Amino acid sequence: MNRCRGFAVASLSIACGLCWSALAGAQEISPTQDAERHFDARLDLNRAFTAARSAATLQPRAIQGLVANVEELTVESNETTGAVSSLSSQRGYLTGATRGRPMDVATEFIRNNAAALGLEAADLQGYVVTDSVYSRVTGATHIYLQQRHAGIPVYNAQLQVNVNRDGRVISVNNSFLPGLAQSVRQLHPRIQLGEAVAAAAKFSGIAVPTQLQVVQSDTGPQRATRMSHEGLSLAPINGRLMLLPIRRGEARLVWNFQIQTLDEQHAWDFTVDAENAEVWTRFDQTVADQYRVYAHPVESPNHTSPLPPSDGRTLVVNPANSTASPFGWHDTNGSAGAEFTTTEGNNVHAYTDTDNNNSPDSGSSPSGGASLNFDFAINLSGAPSTYRPSAVTNLFYWNNIIHDVQYQYGFDEAAGNFQLNNYGRGGAGNDSVRAEAQDGGGTNNANFFTPADGSRPRMQMYIWTSPNPDRDGDLDAGIVVHEYGHGISNRLVGGPSNVNCLTNRQQPGEGLSDWWALAYTARASDTGATPRGMGTYSLGQATTGTGIRTQRYSTDPGVNTWTYASINGMAVPHGVGSVWAQAAWEVYWKLVDEWGFSANLYNATGSAGNQRMMLYVNEGLKNTACNPTFTQVRDGIIQAAIDNHGGEDVCRIWEAFAAFGLGSNAVSGGSGSTAPTNGFNVPASCQGGGGDVVFEDDFETNLGWQTNPNGTDTAVSGAWERGDPEATSSSGTKQLGTTTSGVNALVTGRLAGSSAGVNDIDGGVTSIRSPAITLPAAGTLTLTFSQYLAHGSNATSADFLRVSVVGTTTSVVFQRLASASDVDGAWSTATASLNAFAGQTVRLLIEAADAGTASLVEAGIDDVRITRQ
């Protein structure tokens, strides 16, 4: 089946950031006012602007040509530029296999499909290749082109083509500005870099030194200039001219430069108008996390036995991985023998920075001597200052563990990983992590600064003051993994040369970091339903505590109630990000439940579910568009699943995402939106699943479902019925719509003449239960059904439609919650794995709830099927 999902509208995806109440030129923001990390004046400017999709008539015809040749084509477009922002298939590739270099495959596809992307031939002239990232583990190559005009780069304007090992085009992400040449009105600056820097400092509430001096400059098209930085920035200020896309038909000449603030809390990337000194964008390359907190086997001292104040640590011997760190953790020159006997090496230099001067305290990298024996005492009853060598050793160990594991999954030299010496294996090098333990720059916090490949990142770990005694974040592996995760995601999304691709409102950066922390600290004894709080140790909580997030992560809908649409109203970026982490956690457990769990995270080609998910996430981020929506990150992960493990996990991943509201019909609203629409559908190719039918009921006949099976339902109307699914309320304003097949569905009981509606549940819970179903003992068992939920304006999350499986245990396999907004339902398909019930005789329990009589809640179930493959 060839199907185009349509031109799903997205907000400006070129360099989206957070939105302030006025344009940059109209306000100053002090550090205390800067509650949100990013600023982008274009969001307000373009709020009511929608570009024509294409000035030419070629684009629709060209898209239709792709629709005819690509199975289940997905097309998303950018409403402010009119160009297509992404092309992919929900179940396959954009092209067949071909011979040739990946670069040639990529450029040929772009050349042949420029019209489909909404681009003119002139828009492709003068581009440069910023990165070509080859993934050893998958054989895919990710190619990043940057748009240029008259030798001047276009800010964050990337054309990314992902090519698999067989020369198939996996997907394309596009943020080139169409009609670029006609959109530029100025190529020569009216103000110089010094004036732009002064404007940026004033905008940010920073005092400007009396005299900013030009240290070096050239006369090329980009006017590359270096300014003095004393009293303003930790590093020299290097600026160059770029073209900033505003919207279709307009690109502004801007100065682009970075200021690393003296308090080490920000590394700001600015674009300032080269004509009038207006600040257009300010994106923070330092990710600071305000934890209440977050903490692996072993996650923290509280996750050990014996518990603190006992010392639960173990002595680990020769932990360096020979592939990722071939000369050990203390090497820097690529020869036998350690160059350092302290906590310094090729991947990380760990030390304390208690005086907050961004340099190691004297003697703060503890020595393990010639034998490299880093075995230091610890007393958790005392202040963190009494066990600094142990804290630094723990921080050094975890940074290296993350480096070595991530290397296996493609975060290597070519992808922009963190190493001083790249041993001739690609990438820029000279960028090991500066890991600062017990940093004096703050408390109850941590952060990670990620510059582009070739410049050193910085991790700052702080003391936590709320418990007594104080606790040290350096002992909280969840925090360490989370912070390092920002470095991974910033270098994988958009390529290692562009670290500004996670600055939009609907981006998953915080959630990706949470997910890595969960995945690194998962144990074989865990289940998906096991509640996981983040940062419980540093907050002084028990391991069962909530931690920093408002809900614990769990596949149990009674513990975590989020869906995609839950980001509406959540704080950016942490609240929004935590919802992505839950979505990814649901997918993780879908795979672990199917393929099992392995404690060996170094085996990136392993068949266990957690190994597969780690691979799909890392490779998926390389497929993902700059400034992505959740749906685009989802698509990147699915594209990785299509291309690895024979594609056998694609429908499982779709099913898990769809159950969360990130199905094929989910609507993101754009990269700047936090008001997406849930979608619970899977692609047509994943519906039904094929295989042997174990049980099926389309409700055209009565197969013996019980109403109110336990006699405990409390709804005023405790009945469900097989009947006309299009019955309307007394006002005629609501209807169930059309079932997926036939004329009957199982719908909530009728209340004819009721003001609430003929199908209103009306106050309480009503349930039905299937006849007994004997499941086979072997094979992949999948439950598929159509479901419907509509609710009135005063519904709450206590209103729901729930599907459980009752065997020797009872498990909730699907739950859809209502919200405070009025939603008219629509039928969609949901799936769930029943492998945990193999060999058992089970019943399906369907429940619908209405918290009170004031709201209208209607529910429906149709086409229930259990299959075995």
UniProtKB/TrEMBL annotation:
Listed A to Z, the keywords are: Hydrolase, Metal-binding, Metalloprotease, Protease, Secreted, Signal, Zinc, Zymogen
- Give the signal peptide, or none: 1-26
Instruction: Tell me the ranges covered by the MAM domain, including all copies.
Output: 691-869
Spell out the Low complexity composition-biased ranges: 353-367
Return the SUPFAM superfamilies for the record. Concanavalin A-like lectins/glucanases, Metalloproteases ('zincins'), catalytic domain
Main localization of the protein described in the UniProt heading: secreted
For the keyword Protease, the answer is: yes
Task: Identify which cofactors the protein needs according to its UniProt entry.
Answer: Zn(2+)
Compartments reported by the entry? Secreted
Family matches, as CDD domains: M36
Q: Where is the composition biased (Polar residues)?
A: 703-715, 727-739
Q: Which domain of life is it from?
A: Bacteria
Pfam family of the protein (one): Peptidase_M36
Residue ranges of the region described as Disordered: 347-367, 702-739
As for family, the record states: Belongs to the peptidase M36 family.
Query: Per its UniProt record, what PANTHER family does this chain match?
Result: EXTRACELLULAR METALLOPROTEINASE MEP
- What's the name of the protein? M36 family metallopeptidase
What species is this protein from? Steroidobacter gossypii
